[in-house]
Batch of 4 targets.
Target 1
Amino acid sequence: MTEGIRQKAHIEFRLNDEAVEVAFAPHKTLLEVLREDLNLTGTKHGCELGECGTCTVLVDGRAVLSCLVLGLDVEGREVTTVEGMAEEGRLHPLQDTFADLGAAQCGYCTPGFLLVAKELLEANPQPSREEIKEALAGNLCRCTGYIKIYEAVELAAARMRGEEARPAKEIIYGYE
């Protein structure tokens, strides 16, 4: 490499169901490529040590911590970020239920929770509360206390199964 010239990696992959090509410094993590080079800021910087889950994305349908994955590692693969969860202009049922139940308080950790929950519900459309807790255990939240998050995943699962499900507060308090 010549002094003063930066080497760039060029890769192609599918991002949120669209083919993309991007050039970036080869030492960058997937988190940095998504935020800095592709301007997708839904994926958040957290601990950058793989301990908080804030930077979770799906790679080939599996939840990964984007702070621990080199951008180079997604060449030819499918990456889904929170921006790619909505379909045909409509929020994903998980996004709806997180909003309906107030499961997203400050919202910083929410994208990671949503993507882990998406992976869970695609593999197991009717998870128990314990299975939800186990799946989400790698994601940390400092605001909610987790109960509303678990309830939002349960409600989304029911709606995705085609059940007429309403939030418990609507049933208890008679909201319409």
Target 2
Amino acid sequence: MHSVHLHYTLDAQSAPTPGLVSHPLMTLLQSIERQGSISAAARELGLSYRHVWGALKRWEQELGNELIVWEKGQAARLTEFGRKLMWAERQTQARLAPQIQALRADLERTFAVAFDPDVHVLTLYASHDDAVARLQEHTASQGLHLDVRFCGSVDAIRALNEGRCSVAGFHTLETPSANSLPARTYKPLLQLGKHKLIGFARRQVGLMTAPGNPLKLQSLQDVASRGARFVNRELGTGTRVLLDQLMDESQLRADSLRGYEDVEPSHAAVAASIASGRADVGLGIQSAAVRQGLSFVPLLVENYWLVCLKSALEAPSLVSLRAQLQSPPWLEALAAIPGYLPHTPGDIKSLKKVLPWWYPVLLGNN
């Protein structure tokens, strides 16, 4: 087996996806793939044609395989090896995105505290979400550094209750019944009088499919009946809780979905799996589907909430966060993300008025 070492750089400016890692060869191949010629790629990257040509030749020698189909007068295109290399790159970037973003947040927090005594730092454990990642970028320029750790919704709220973060992010149906799986999952973790919700966003959730939805999937029943290859989320994630609730409502068992045990750590990783052809469909958010060029079949709208302890509401970092959530620039940025809309952003909400699974208990006490 051929062995080669690739050294990546954490660089928000040059990385294909801001905040992730980049490698000069991968950046070069992506540019050639987009532009269709070496000279156009060189111009896009601000490099000379000679430099790009030489770099490609050096990498072909290092990797032991040709990367570009060299035909005079024809548009440059990646070889089969080059396409497989790019596929591996996209899969790796998607799978490592939460960990890399956490590393970036660690570095930002360290240097912010070291050099600016007036900066605010807020630790946020949250279910993986594109709007949270965008919020992290937005607030950093406003003097509020969000130390974001992406994890499942259940683990995020547990982290809040154990004092490992100041705010947790989780998502749930707008009106889950008192006997629903979301209610049974989250209700024991949230206490009336102790926790407060902060309005954040609504987002579209649905089926992410291959471009054009070739299997014509419109529901989980279609996924099951047509034997489509499904890719799931891990236990403890809010999307897994949602899926199991939808399956229960549709009277589907775990073995009804081909690939129910095949899991990925994020919406981006699920989308990348479908884009690569390894799976046909997965449950996820619209923005992840759009980013990978997939088709999207909307099924429902979720509320994405931020939750904190009532005792922490007046902390400077939380006051700053709420102000940022209500600022026009952030509202504009949020609305630009496919499938997202602001939902009472920055407003403080009580559990019993927003999460309807407490209603039967409250009515029974009257």
Target 3
Amino acid sequence: MAHIEKRSERRYRVRYRDPAGAERSKTFARLTEARRFKATIEDELGRNLWIDPRAAKMTFEEFTTTLGQRRLHVRPATTERVAGFMRSQVLPTFGSMPLNKITRPSVQMWVDEIARELAPRTVRDSYRILAGLLREAVRQGIIRQSPCYSYRFPTSLGRSRVT
């Protein structure tokens, strides 16, 4: 599947084919790093877990723009409501971030930050929109795992609720 070739005195290149058949490569300074990468790539390709590293660098806003153009089975009122949440809460924080750089701590910090200013239901709805979009990125094979799971949200009674 993958193979290592020596490029120079201290450079090694791992070459492999992605699931679509395109040739990919990555260069390393140490042979041990190249061997480790080769083993990882072969494992991911063999188990259909390979994620295109270039696709994961797409920004969150680019992903939502392309995804929004394909959503056909949503009522217009729902579309406008989601767009409002996106404009006011989600995109200011995550719009320019690459999908593979959105982490669990960054999402939790965002939830905590907007919870100081917004009603509990608004926080939950904003989070659910973000979580749904990141789940779709997982389904499309752009990221391996969504960072959105088991968050604590404020409630109107001052208690926390896990979803």
Target 4
Amino acid sequence: MQTLLNESVLVLNRHWTAVHVTSVRRSLVLLYGGHARVVAEDFSVHDFGSWRELSAALQTIRAITTPSFRIAVPEVIMLTSFSKYPPRQVKFSRRNIYMRDNYTCQYCGCVPPRDELTVDHILPRSRGGRSTWDNVVLACMKCNMKKGDRLPHEIGMQLRTQPKKPHWLACSNFQIPTGGSSLWQKFLDNAYWNVPLLD
């Protein structure tokens, strides 16, 4: 049950726009307090009482059981009064580069210990390269040494993916569901879901 309570729930504002991610525990607190509604697969919206009733009819193993009732784990909630669009800028930082590249060398695909990864400039700084989302990637020490101050194609190296600024959710601390039936997919940007993922 502890694991279920810590899973991620997508949060929408009143305009049905994804604005945040929270835990199941926090989403149930918001639901119980009347600050949020659960969004079901058919886009119906439920308060705590109706979600509790619907949970009794649902045949799901993803539910929290209490001494008096069973309540299904929500995937998506909608806030009842919040209508703003919080800033969703992704800070250009070492942490976010590591998260974007999944702690993986973008040349050979290995996943070494974190202290053996470096941030490599595709167009080296010595040749005018800048520190931007589309010019930096993670590289293991071996690949970084091999590449040196050259361009990847000059020594027969190839990037596994083309680097770009990540979606705001990719740099959050929350686990994004990978299941094909996830309700999240209906609310998140196509740009996020169409980014090729590493094996």
